């Protein structure tokens, strides 16, 4: 059986994003089971995979349950040693693990003031003193990793690692709330916003459109700071170029128009996630 990842909402669940990236970004096969925070306590929605009580939780093909994201990173690295979850260099690997563990247990002021919300971007946000302390520590860690090990690519240790998956929601918070950081940290945040996997995750949240009002903050809104997607919209009727959905291979029943061309998908979610960010999806981009 395929590994099954249990997640919360795409827009708000920062820990779910980390767990999903640990699989998606490293090319591992898995399926998704989504719960919604609107349906009550998470633990009550996960009774079928006890002792898990939080998201993300992974049920492996043989039935093992992993219910902590740090444990998930280490277990996936053990099971898939060639996937590249941790840097190969021992010194870099030690730092990556330490940074990931610190993220797992720290930065509470930032989390409290700026919950992840990938459908909103704010301006004029004044960080609290605790958030400023968190940001200073985050910048110090990012700078040390990038300067010591990041020359081979845009990520903390050059190539994408589990550390980047863990800091992706931190980058989303800095971007979404317009928090003040220096040039190096700003470039690292921009790398996350442009990452196709991150964009796919965000697009799925837009497609589902679930709104959890307790995550809203009373600040002036502004445009999302990431790359602007190519324009597309849902279409009620027309003749698609493709007969089958680029994701499932089943007959196309739901239509989208993009730049004068019509494409078909097997259901509304496949269409709407593509409308949200068409070129983030390799299977659709191949049709272009």
TrEMBL record:
It is an enzyme of class 2 (transferase). Keywords: Transferase. Its EC number is 2.5.1.18. InterPro entries: Glutathione-S-Trfase_C_sf, Glutathione_S-Trfase_N, Thioredoxin-like_sf. Signal peptide: none annotated. Pfam families: GST_N_2. One of its GO terms (biological process) is L-phenylalanine catabolic process. The keyword Acyltransferase does not apply. PROSITE patterns: GST_NTER. The keyword Repressor does not apply. Transmembrane segments: none annotated. Residues 3-84 form the GST N-terminal domain. GO terms for molecular function: glutathione transferase activity; maleylacetoacetate isomerase activity. PANTHER family: MALEYLACETOACETATE ISOMERASE (PTHR42673). This is Glutathione S-transferase. It comes from Salipiger abyssi. The lineage of its organism: Bacteria, Pseudomonadati, Pseudomonadota, Alphaproteobacteria, Rhodobacterales.
